[in-house]
Amino acid sequence: MTSQDAFRHADDLGPHKILHVYQPTIGLKGTLVLDNVAIGPAIGGLRMAPDVSTEECFRLARAMTLKNAAAGLRHGGGKSVLYGDPRMPMDEKERLIRAFACALRGEEGYIFGPDMGTDEICMAWVRDEIERATGLPAMLGGIPLDELGATGWGLRHAAEVAATFCGLTLDGARVVVQGFGAVGLHAAKFLKEIGAVVVGAADSRGSICSPDGLDLDSLIALKRAGRSVAEAGEGRSDTPEAVVEIPCDIWIPAARPDVIRADNVDRLDARLVLQGANIPCTEDAEARLHERGILCLPDFIANAGGVICAACEYAGMDREAAFAAISSRIRANTLEVLNAARDGDMLPRQAALVMARRRVLEAMATRRWSVF
Asked: How many CB atoms within 10 Å of residue 268?
């Protein structure tokens, strides 16, 4: 998708602005999409990967608009992407991120946060250059989102509410995590604390499954050592894609967009899909899950824990207040959306869109036209 394509996809919410940054002498290529800033300055993560695109950035920015509105935050939605391998030498990565931040110094409607391929150290570099960053290291007064598992904490509370809508008991529930990274790892850990059993996990290099349950501590140790979950000395290892077919009660996509699509959705054997990643399921796949009686909780409701924590940090709140806000807001929003979906006989995403769009449009009605 080019910027012109994005304008053809524009609607009554946005996008407000699309910026491309290119400096070939240092290998800098990036994009910022500010989708909507009617409620306030946008908070959205900086994603780094070799195959990011304007289209992905555009879709993720809209997801942030909806997520921030649904969470009741005083922030709009935006996203930035940086083309490159996040595993490049640290000095090269630092140079690119600092340069990208400097290029966006004047975009005061956007606040950087961590995302796939970036972390709190990257946000410290951004803060050093332009101040506008959240998800900072603790030594700078931040609440480390990945270290503490803010998004995973929210997924646990979303699961507790959603389970009652699909007749599921979490004590003993079988969980599969696709994308066993910062989000998926902590979601598994928090669900285990309330009795769930992790029977499958995958990362970019492979998958592992065991119907009797996997040793979660061993999987976490492997990831922190830079190794793949497929190297675990238990269960059956396979390709990353094989994780779709592992029977379970709760399936958590926590990696890239569009991992569940029309061509693989019928291979999924679960009762609840808890979207830990942004836009992990295509629209037709979500519709098919609904037809099959599988409850699919949309991304901008289920995984809002990270951005709620980031907003709390940016407002000067501490960890305890942030985690309390995550649990209360996600539980309330999950309940509201699933009640509306059931009463209106619609997909959960449709009910969530109605709620989030209403909040954004009400904010837009109070603002002068030029701000959005």
From this structure: 24
Query: Are residues 228 and 205 in contact, defined by beta-carbon separation less than 8 angstroms?
Result: yes
Give the whole-angstrom CA distance, residue 53 versus residue 326. Answer: 30
Tell me the pLDDT tens digit for each residue of 255-288. Answer: 988 999 999 999 999 999 999 998 899 999 999 9
- CA-CA distance, 190 to 182, in Å (whole number)? 12
If one counts the domains in the chain, the total is 2
Give the span between the Cα atoms of 44 and 110, in whole angstroms: 8
CATH code of residue 168: 3.40.50.720
Q: Is residue 317 part of a domain?
A: no
Checking 159-164 for CB contacts under 8 A at 24+ apart, the result is 159/191, 159/250, 159/272, 159/274, 160/194, 160/331, 161/331, 161/334, 161/335, 161/338, 162/272, 162/274, 162/295, 162/297, 162/334, 162/338, 163/272
Could you list the residue range(s) of the whole structural domain that residue 194 is in? 150-305+332-356
Average pLDDT over residues 192-214: 96
How is the beta sheet containing 174-178 ordered, strand by strand?
236-238, 206-209, 197-203, 174-178, 250-253, 272-274, 295-297
Burial class from Cβ neighbours inside 10 Å (0-12, 13-18, 19+) for residue 46 reads buried
Q: How far is CA 169 from CA 90, 159, 162, 165, 197, in A?
A: 44, 10, 10, 11, 12
Catalogue the long-range contacts made by 221-226 (C-beta closer than 8 Å, 24 or more residues apart): 223/180, 223/181, 223/185
Residues 238 and 162 in one domain: yes
Please give the C-alpha separations between residue 56 and each of 70, 244, 351, in angstroms, as whole numbers.
21, 22, 23
pTM for the model: 0.89
> Tell me, what CATH number does 133's domain have?
3.40.50.10860
Distance of alpha carbon 112 from alpha carbon 158, whole angstroms = 25
- Active-site residues, by number, are 79
pLDDT tens-digit profile of 24-82? 999 999 999 999 999 999 999 999 999 999 999 999 999 999 999 999 999 999 999 99
